TrEMBL record, chain A:
InterPro entries xrefs: ABC3_permease_C, Lipoprotein-release_system
Localization terms from the record: Cell membrane
Membrane-crossing segments per the record: 20-42, 562-584, 605-629, 667-689
Membrane topology recorded in Swiss-Prot or TrEMBL: Multi-pass membrane protein
Protein name: FtsX-like permease family protein
Pfam families xrefs: FtsX (PF02687)
Entry annotated with the keyword Metal-binding: no
Keyword set, alphabetical order: Cell membrane, Membrane, Transmembrane, Transmembrane helix
Family: Belongs to the ABC-4 integral membrane protein family. LolC/E subfamily.
Residue span(s) of domain ABC3 transporter permease C-terminal: 566-694
Organism annotation: Myxococcus landrumensis
UniProtKB/TrEMBL annotation, chain B:
Pfam families: LolA_like (PF17131)
Protein name: Outer membrane lipoprotein-sorting protein
Domain Uncharacterized protein TP-0789 intervals: 75-256
Domain of life: Bacteria
The keyword Lipoprotein belongs to this UniProt entry's keyword annotation: yes
Record has 4Fe-4S as a keyword: no
Amino acid sequence: MGQLRLLLQVAFRNLFTSKINILIGGIIFFGTLLVVVGGALLDSIDGAMSRSIIGSVAGHIQVYSDESKDELSLYGGMSGEPDLTVLADFSRVRPVLEKHPNVKTVVPMGTSSALITSGNTVDLTLARLRDLYKKRTEQGESAALKESIDSVKAHVRQIVALMEKQRANSKVVLTDAAVDPMEVEALARARTDEFWNSFDADPFASLEFLENRIAPQLPDGDLLELRYVGTDLDTFQRTFDRMEIVDGEAVPHGKRGMLVSKFFYENFFKLKTAFRLDTLKQERDLNGKLIATDPQLQRWVKENQTQTREIIFQLDPVKTHQAVERLQKVLGSKESTLDKLLPEFFTTTDENFDTRYQQFYAELAPLLDLYRLRMGDTLTISAFTRTGYVQSVNVKVYGTYQFKGLEKSTMAGLINLMDLMTFRDLYGYLSPDRKAEIAELQKNSGIKPVDRASAEDALFGEDSGNTLVAEAATGIVDDSKAFEGNQGAVYREDQVARVYSQEEIEKGVVLSTAVILKDPTKLEQTMEELKQVGTDAGMKLRAASWQQAAGFIGQFVLLAKLVLYFAVFIIFVVALVIINNAMMMATLQRVREVGTMRAIGAQRSFILSMVLVETVLLGLVFGAGGALVGSGVMTMLGSSGIPANNEALYFFFSGPRLYPTLSASNLIAAFVIVLVVSAISTFYPAFLATRVSPLQAMQTDE
Amino acid sequence: MSLKNLLSAAAVSVALLSAPVALALEPAAMVQILSVIDDRQRNGGDYKAHIYLEQKEKDKTDNVREGFVYRRDADDKLMILFSKPKTEAGKGYLRLDKNLWSYDPNVGKWERRTERERIAGTDSRRADFDESRLAEEFDPSYEGEAKLGKYTAHRLNLKVKPNIDVAYPVVKLWVDKDTNNILKREEYALSGRLMRTALYPRWKKVFSESKGADVWYPEEIRFYDEVEKANSTIVLIKSVDLRALEANLFTKAWLESKSR
């Protein structure tokens, strides 16, 4: 005991006397600071990322069929959609999984993607007009209907006038050969009063003329990739409580419908000009960028000046007139055409941007459809099913949604939600009936299978039995009954009105199920047990953790963690070497002191303890200092937060700011690491010190 | 005549004398062959065919359908309408002028498609079902003769004429010397890459009252995708009917009415 006190006294005395000790202390101080701050940040980011993925769609565990060829990848893989075998009946899987004591909720899911195509502005306007005329044919003329028809007709007429004007302008750049006389002729006809006066005599023929001869003269419409999760929307919303409805409403219970992600909605359905203005504002306000200096911002301004057609084509004659008046007032201009006023209005600089932004939303926006898709509209989605058939469905968009904290995250923001019934239609699962029907068709075709490599010999050879001249009987092809029973229109109406029972929703195909656990720390164990539970119930199930299910994003999270841990490891190896060298120097400096102590009776073990205690004390004192400062830094960051100033960081931080927290485990880990590192680096110098003999010490020169 | 000209004349004569026995066809003769091919498949009046389509793809169930092709060659009009399997009934395509419209009764919407549209997701294209317009769309050049099983064929290399939109700009044709029927057709992208091969092993003819002559059609066509090598399509034209069709058949309204 007395010896320990002596050792401590010596250690305290030596703490600040040597410069080398201060150096070592400094290294320990910064090392601890780094471990505390870095460790806590790493843990916080890890926690936030897990929350992002678990809380958006993955849940803790995803269970899917073990017969699947590929691994499940909720965010889509590098090479398209993974090839999964379906779980043919969710209502059988659910009770099996729910029996496990650690399972809280089971949510059915099917993830896939499809393309949405939309025609150009003329196509869309003409489709509207066609619908109105169809309505008139079915329901008869009414004053309101006539007014709508006249308004859309006036709009089409205006678009045709604009198209001709643009054609006249483009003549300057186009050679005569590039101008199709048929197109010119069609446009000229659509400009005549005669055409419009006789429009109603045969409206469908007039429409076909516009659809086939005028609309194709404009460039193609949009093509949009839509990623969706089909799910039981009620259970989904209850389970993933970070989800919130932004615009519109939730899909009513049991109905078909879709919720578009707010992020996706803003990015892809908003009027491009308005979206560019929003982005400009965000870049200026949030990230402090300037139009004057930033080339990307300048590009957006330029695009707003030049790409005004989307706005001009949208306005009917009345609204065009209003827009001109408002812009004249705002700009103090006498210019009377919209295609000159708009570029002037969108010539924005850092000085006038905020005013113009506000004016755009106050004056122009009320005249425009800011979004191509409005809440309550029907979206047509076409998907290539696994079987090669194209399936299209109409689905009503009820609202937009977002995950709290993930508003700006591209990855979470690209996922749209739809009901399971619509998902199943798009997936096109081949029921046994359909399989049998297809097999029957194939059998009746009488086709001989031919190997591709020898196809020419088999089809053209002497033994092929094929001939190039044969007399066909005067054929009668009867198609009168071929399309009977096709109830397209009835089916469409039925889909909109029908309310499905919970049993209908659950009984059917899903691709995977998200499992939420009561105790997430037992994730690995529960995964194993769930597989077993499946096998016991006669189902081949595969379980994937949220990290595996997130596909390449999950891999990325893992990789990011590994890189950070590796960096910390390298820093400690370097620290170890530096401390070791410094201790060597310190020990060599004290050869005389040690020798003298040995001469007056100090045992080797005493010397060893002395050096060790000194370093450990050094570690404790400076380590405590580092930990204290580190805690201070973390408290500061924890209250102010670290801003996520790009979209990827949004995902990693699980929100606009990361508020890191410091746990006791971070502090303990830091202390243990620091003490172990300082102790290890002292062993060799301490051992050298015990080797010093009094004789050696006395021979040493001053 | 200078020595140089004399030499080149000699070189040309040597080349000509040593050429294969089958002499190259004159451009006019080749255009004549194409016109014959086109003309034999054309009907003066209307045309209706019952077809069968089968698409094979790697790791997928076969995509099989039956349907009808309607043509009014005089007005350049075409409609393809599927009837089986039941879920596909009423889906179809309608060609009006340069527009290829696709229609799905389940959504009641029209969409404009391109020449490259894979009809119903198979390796066939609109032009495979439409009136043959080889002479109008392509310029031929001669590549010699070739044996194909028991047949001897002219090999023609066709390049698309300017300002004409076709799915494949370069086509190689094997045309049977005896019957003038197409045996094989290879289609290339502009880059020279082989995209698709088609084989026509069986041809049939049927007498047309309106034309006053025979109308020919390939009873079977096999398409091989040369990009996705595992994909192939078989088209069967099971029977052909040449009676007049309803006057307003080739309209959107008519197609829509099929799903009411």
